[in-house]
Amino acid sequence: LLLLLAASIACVCAITDAEYDAVKNTLLKEMSNHHDFTTEQLFHDLATDLGLASAAQSLYPGSPTAKDGYKAIYKRLCQLSKDKSATEEQKSTIVKLEAFMKNIGLVG
Question: What is the dihedral of CA 96, 20, 81, 26, to 10 degrees?
Answer without folding.
Answer: 30
